[in-house]
Amino acid sequence: MKRTALALLLLSFSAPALADEKVDCVSAHSESQSLRTESKLREAREKLLVCARPECPAAVRSDCAKWLGEVQDEIPSVMVAATDANGSDVADVRVVVDGVVIAKELTGQPILLNPGQRTLRFERDGASPIERKLVLRVGERNRRIEVQFTPRLAGGAPPGEGNGAPAPAPTPTPEPEPSADKGGGGIPAATFILGGVGVLGLAGFTFFALDGKKKEDDLDKCKPNCAGDDVQAARTSYLLGDVSLGVGVLAFAGAAYFLFASGPKQESAARAPLFLDLRAGSRGAVGTFGGRF
């Protein structure tokens, strides 16, 4: 009688525990398939290890054992080899995958990861962290990753952030020397000079042409008894107007040449000796503009 009561008492305590284990087995069985569908093979493997235990129901245990073998063949893995600045192996390395710590140190064993694009970050106290981005394929096993840590600079940004190598010093870019024969905005100085001469030439032409016309009108009033000096003065004004016009036209032509010339021709022309030859005649003036082009 006492033995029967003791057996019933033990069954009353063990029955809820057995029921909870069966619920865990069935739940892990179902969740593992959802995780496999989402390519979360690492998490699916953990669930399959739960439902493949001997205490799980035979049907559940059989499925989980079969699926566990399949996941073991599909899940990718990496082998991490870490060294310090001297090239010596180090193991005190934290491995962070997509923001989650996967390993607190290196043990020489493969690290199981989910397939797809992954961001791996390797951290070591006193050293610059290293990041690597890679795409893992289903069934890819023991992919080797080598990282070398360098000491972190005190009071500054870590050198070689992201690749474990010292950051190269920036190369200073020399400033271009100002050109002696060019004005502001890259326009040759000769263009400004000749342009100014052209403006003065046109202004002179306008002045002397108006002055000559005024004197010619005065001569019309005194014909035919005009003084010779008055006639010569009118001719001189027209002559100076013609000279000024010629100077202006030639100066503008030279300015246009230097403005549109390019390359070595522009530089050599800006420095080439120029000449302007003006010759007055009885009926006007002749101007010649030249230089080495």
Would you mind describing this structure in some detail?
The protein is α+β, with helices and mostly antiparallel strands and 293 residues long. The protein folds into three domains: 2-72, no CATH class; 77-148, Immunoglobulin-like; 184-291. The protein contains six helices and nine strands. The protein has helices spanning 2-37, 41-51, 58-74, 189-222, 228-260, 263-271, and strands at residues 77-83, 94-97, 100-103, 111-112, 116-123, 130-136, 143-148, 274-281, 284-291. The protein has a four-stranded antiparallel sheet, with no helix packed on it. The longest helix has 36 residues, at 2-37. The chain is rod-shaped. Residues 1-14, 158-164, 180-184 and 265-272 have low confidence and may be disordered.
Query: Per the principal axes of the C-alpha atoms, what is the gross shape?
Result: rod-shaped
Structural class: alpha+beta
Helical proportion, percent range = 40-55%
Number of strands: 9
Low-confidence stretches: 1-14, 158-164, 180-184, 265-272
Mean pLDDT: 78
Head-to-tail CA distance between termini: 130 Å
Strand order of the largest sheet: 3-2-5-6
Fraction in beta strands: 15-25%
Largest sheet: 4 strands, antiparallel
* Topology pattern, helix = H, strand = E: HHHEEEEEEEHHHEE
The number of helices is: 6
How large, in whole angstroms, is the Cα Rg?
Answer: 48 Å
What is the count of distinct domains? 3
